[in-house]
Amino acid sequence: MYFKLSEEQELIRSNVHEFALKHIEPIAAEIDANSRYPAEIFEKLGELGMMGISYPAEYGGGGTEFLTTMIVTEELSRFCASTGFLHGYSFGLVGHPILTFGNEEQKKKWMPGLATGKFVGAFALTEPGAGTDVRAATSSAVKNGDSYILNGTKTFITNASLADVFVAFAYTDRSAGVKGMSCFLIPKGSPGLIVGEHFDKMGVRGSYTSEVVFKDCIVPADCLLGKEGDGFKIAMSALDVGRIGIAAMSTGIAQACLDESVRYSKERVQFNKPIASQQAIQWFIANMSTDVDAARFMYMYAAWLKDQGKPFSLAASKAKLFCSECAARHTTKAVQIQGGYGFMKGAKVERLYRDVKLAEIGEGTSEAQRMIIAGAALR
User: Which of 29, 48, 214, 329 has the greatest count of CB atoms below 10 A from its CB?
Assistant: First the structure.
């Protein structure tokens, strides 16, 4: 089988590349240094149709394949991991659950804003005492007439301080285990919704991450996403898609490492010749180039399976595991190639080295992915 992107997908990749070179590359270091959400970039991406490129046209989207969204995520991540991460996050953990499980009223309310970048969404699943063990969550939602009252605390919530809508999870029937978990679309400004200060993160500093507290938070009953008890299913579906986004982001970071390593090794002269002539450097670059291609095929295959309506959960876990660890491996090598220069603040490879760690943690750690993959292999 010969895998080839369509002419439209290649054109989109090229256009995003040029956009990123012009608008993102010049400010990426500043975004990182100041821990600043690049609102102006997402406004421009929304105007270009890149925030909702794979959403259906009736909800303001471009109607393309999910794979196309991931191509955009990869290319953005090549220049700024924060921008690429937030792009993939918006689709995988916010847009996808609403589009897949929402009723028509919910879709019409939220999807056009997400598709144009005018709305920001947050995925509120992780809790301080739960983390990877989603079943151990303690947040609760009690039906009270035509509303629910939510109580609980979420942590490490991306976009919390900016979000127009929270895709939030709480138990409506704890005795039923995960079958008693439900999902809610909680608008900003809801009574009892409290967002904490931004966490000061090591990397991906352009994304705001905060604690969220529901303190007798009143949510209208029509904010229930799906049915009562659908929450765990919705969360797992969103994470499957989000993992492909992390894989695409990681591939963009790995590609950036290759770009920087090739550039620097041609420019840096030692012992009267460019270090690119040294076999050790050539081997580093050969391994990077090979792994970047492998990573790209892995995330694209997982995205293609989703587009074909085929099971993609296992492929998503494999892509997320391989691509994130590949990128982590090669950020180390990229810093090594640049030596002392790569170790300095302001070097792009130093920023990539910090950014990539999120990819091995977010949307399920590498260890969690190995549990999923081993479970399937040993079944």
Answer: 214
